């Protein structure tokens, strides 16, 4: 084996990153650029797909340069990305017909209400594993076809292609030769049947989505094509696609039933491998595909939290009370009774209230900037407890130690407070780039760099273990306060008709 490195593209909500790994699974170099967030109207969130592609390519070249290697040293590229975000483009020109509609976007809440009113929720839960919500791609596709002039007719004539970000990047990497997605990303569209592993006819009909628009659904670990020669001067196999939360599950070596992790990024997701059978979702958790290899899938149960790191960004960008996310440090022993419910785009798991909005409650004359910063971080820990309690009820599994990763898990206070509120240890690995590592592992398995999961089973190396230090009574009292604050944020915006 002469090719010694694997590159992962990690296209998150806030940045495009490329990470090069060596055969030991260690990070060799990273390239990173922020992605512009576009807010055309309240509740709408878009990205420019061309910016995503050009920045992703730029950071890949940067990572290669920093590693001091040549593109021909790369055995493969694996793609992991923000999930659900929806792009539609012209197959002939490769031009997007509109911006990418981001997972956070709420413009289709009304369309989702009408699906619910038609009694589709039990079918959606049983067959797609999801709850009906604007978060998933299906209603975003319906909106694009209904609102961009001529799009529906062009889609029906087979002139357009739909994809989540993995599909968009693979299309561009292969010079338009591969129009594919993988099982994990497909399972976030609300159009894919996670039991039959095919696009779901009834959902396509309910959302008026023509099949001519859809990518082919493939394994998460498989060569889909090679990079266009114009990009790196050599042809590099594009050999993995995986949703970012699922990528982290794989990168943390959670290969067997019952193994769980929590990723702290823009969003957070607590995900547990449920083996070869999907659990019918309950208590606001969703069932999703964890990974697909050799046409066999493993499932996971997931509690997704829409706004975690994004609330820290809000302190930085909108409130401007910190200059960078790393300044979200805690300098006060408590929040002085302040709770911050960051329901900017409604509440996700376990309550799924699209009409909730953000709230800061418990303010008194003594409340200050430090209390609000602390309350912002604490909100993530409380939301994780919401999900852990739901997961224990649904799957009957106690979280004995939570493996963590993602950009915000470098924050020691956040890790300690999470451990305190859960009453369980929090385990931080040495390589917190689990998302990218998962994509690299999957691409490396497809191209023979690694023989399979067995070889990677010991990939989790502990950096620090945070033990619960708070009195349980105090933790429970604080958590009850959180639950009351959440009630205040609910059912705030008026329902769309
Ligand atoms: N020290 C920190 N404390 C708290 N939050 C942080 C810290 N550093 C980064 N973050 C948050 O982590 C998120 C970035 O994590 P990352 O995993 O790169 O996100 P994504 O993949 O969603 O783009 C941002 O929302 C940022 O605000
Ligand atoms: O951008 P991230 O890494 O927080 O992930 C976003 C999720 O994939 C949305 O489902």
TrEMBL record:
EC number(s) recorded for this UniProt protein: 2.7.1.30
Stated name of the protein: Glycerol kinase
Binding site for ADP: 13, 17, 266, 309, 407, 411
GO CC, alphabetical: cytosol
Family note: Belongs to the FGGY kinase family.
Binding site for ATP: 13-15, 266, 309, 313, 407
Domain Carbohydrate kinase FGGY N-terminal residues, every copy: 6-251
Major enzyme class: transferase
Binding site for sn-glycerol 3-phosphate: 13, 83-84, 135, 244
Start and end residues of each Carbohydrate kinase FGGY C-terminal domain: 260-446
Native organism: Roseiarcus fermentans
Keyword annotations of the record: ATP-binding, Glycerol metabolism, Kinase, Nucleotide-binding, Transferase
Coiled coil feature spans: none
UniProt function note: Key enzyme in the regulation of glycerol uptake and metabolism. Catalyzes the phosphorylation of glycerol to yield sn-glycerol 3-phosphate.
Pathway: Polyol metabolism; glycerol degradation via glycerol kinase pathway; sn-glycerol 3-phosphate from glycerol: step 1/1
Catalytic reactions of this protein: glycerol + ATP = sn-glycerol 3-phosphate + ADP + H(+)
Binding site for glycerol: 83-84, 135, 244-245
Means of activity regulation: Inhibited by fructose 1,6-bisphosphate (FBP).
MF terms in GO: ATP binding; glycerol kinase activity
Nucleus found in the keyword field: no
A biological process from GO: glycerol-3-phosphate metabolic process
């Amino acid at each position: 084996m002469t090719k010694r490195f694997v590159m992962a593209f990690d296209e998150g909500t806030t940045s495009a990153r490329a990470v090069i790994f060596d055969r030991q699974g260690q990070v060799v170099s990273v390239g990173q650029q922020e992605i512009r967030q576009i807010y055309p109207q309240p509740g709408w969130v878009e990205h420019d797909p061309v910016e995503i592609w050009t920045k992703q390519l730029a950071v890949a070249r940067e990572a290669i340069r920093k590693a001091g290697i040549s593109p021909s040293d790369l055995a493969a590229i694996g793609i992991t990305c923000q999930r659900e975000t929806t792009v539609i483009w012209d197959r002939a020109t490769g031009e997007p017909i509109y911006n990418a509609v981001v997972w956070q976007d709420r413009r289709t809440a009304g369309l989702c209400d009408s699906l619910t009113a038609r009694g589709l929720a039990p079918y959606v839960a049983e067959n797609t594993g999801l709850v009906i919500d604007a978060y998933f791609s299906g209603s975003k596709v319906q909106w694009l076809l209904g609102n961009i002039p001529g799009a529906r007719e062009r889609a029906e004539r087979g002139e357009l292609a739909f994809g989540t970000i993995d599909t968009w990047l693979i299309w561009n990497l292969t010079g338009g030769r591969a129009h594919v997605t993988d099982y994990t990303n497909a399972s976030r569209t609300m159009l894919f049947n996670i039991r039959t592993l095919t696009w779901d006819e009834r959902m396509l009909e309910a959302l008026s989505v023509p099949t001519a628009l859809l990518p082919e659904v493939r394994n998460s670990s498989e060569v889909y094509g090679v990079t266009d020669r114009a990009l790196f001067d050599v042809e590099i196999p594009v050999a993995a696609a995986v949703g970012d939360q699922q990528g982290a599950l794989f990168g943390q070596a959670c290969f067997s039933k019952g193994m769980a992790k929590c990723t702290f990024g823009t969003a957070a997701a607590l995900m547990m491998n449920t083996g070869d059978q999907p659990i019918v979702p309950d208590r606001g958790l969703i069932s999703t595909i964890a990974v697909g290899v050799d046409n066999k899938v493993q499932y996971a149960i997931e509690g997704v939290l829409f706004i975690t790191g994004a609330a820290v960004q809000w302190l930085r960008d909108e409130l401007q009370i910190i200059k960078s996310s790393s300044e979200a440090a805690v300098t006060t022993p408590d929040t002085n009774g302040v709770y911050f419910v960051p329901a900017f785009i409604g509440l996700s798991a376990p309550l799924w209230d699209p009409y909730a909005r953000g709230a800061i409650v418990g303010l008194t004359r003594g409340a200050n900037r430090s209390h609000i910063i602390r309350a912002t971080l604490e909100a993530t820990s409380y939301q994780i407890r919401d999900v852990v309690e739901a997961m224990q009820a649904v799957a009957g599994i106690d979280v004995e130690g939570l493996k963590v990763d993602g950009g915000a898990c470098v924050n020691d206070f956040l890790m300690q407070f999470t451990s305190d509120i859960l009453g369980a240890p929090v385990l931080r690995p040495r390589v917190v780039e689990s998302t990218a590592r998962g994509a690299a592992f999957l691409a490396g398995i497809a191209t023979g760099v690694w023989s399979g999961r067995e070889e990677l089973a010991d990939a989790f190396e502990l950096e620090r273990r945070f033990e619960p230090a708070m009195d349980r009574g105090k933790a429970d009292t604080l958590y009850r306060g959180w639950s009351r604050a959440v009630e205040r944020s609910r059912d705030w915006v008026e329902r769309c008709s």
